[in-house]
Amino acid sequence: MRVHIVVFDGMDDLDVVGPFSVLGMAARAGLGVEVRLTAPSGSAATTRGGLPLHPEPWAPEEADVLIVPGGGYASGENTGVRAEIADGRLPAALARAVRPDLVLASVCTGALLLAAAGLVTGRPCTTHHRAVGDLVAAGGVHVDARVVDDGDLVTAGGVTSGLDLALWLVERFRGPDASGLVQRAMEYERREPLWRGAGAGVRR
Fold it and tell me: Cross-referenced SUPFAM superfamilies, in alphabetical order (predicted)?
């Protein structure tokens, strides 16, 4: 499982660090997981909390999963997700990345970036509770769950939901034993509920 996490200025620290920590631990445990940070611009990015990140080149064709973090949207500030939506280049890059064997995933308000790319219309999805109205207005079908897996679209709602998203992806692609191993190593249990559509089977 090759996972690329998209980075941009003003993203929430936990939305990036949470999934990266889970997937990095899975990689070090030899569970067949690779994770990297990436950005269409190729430029360094700084999180909302001031953490500088240096992404690798944008190559979504090399990914099995593309994770989009959120950040700043629920506060109403014109930073993070809102700034990227206004700029338009990241949503356009996400729309161009779509292909049949790519899973697009989001943490918290990252779902609004997928919405801006036209990728949630008519699809079950979730986001931060303060952004649900905007997600629905953009065409998404809100599901009240921690993680919503609709096959090639997986979304998670809540500030710490990146941990749960990443653990579910490990289970979906590498099985429950792999996910359980990472959870025990992290001393963290994945939060529920998980909503799964018909196309969200576990790969062994």
Answer: Class I glutamine amidotransferase-like
- The 10s digit of each residue's pLDDT in 135-160 is 999 999 999 999 999 999 999 999 89
| 2-196: CATH class | alpha beta
Q: What CA–CA distances, in Å, run from 203 to 58, 114, 129, 199, 200?
A: 26, 24, 30, 11, 9
3-state DSSP assignment of residue 173 = helix
Paired sense of beta strands 147-149 and 153-156, if any: antiparallel
The structural domains of the chain, with segments of one domain joined by +, span: 2-196
Bridging pattern class, strands 194-196 and 147-149: parallel
* Distance from the Cα of residue 109 to its chain's centroid: 9
What's this model's pTM, rounded to 2 decimal places?
0.95
Amino acid at 94: L
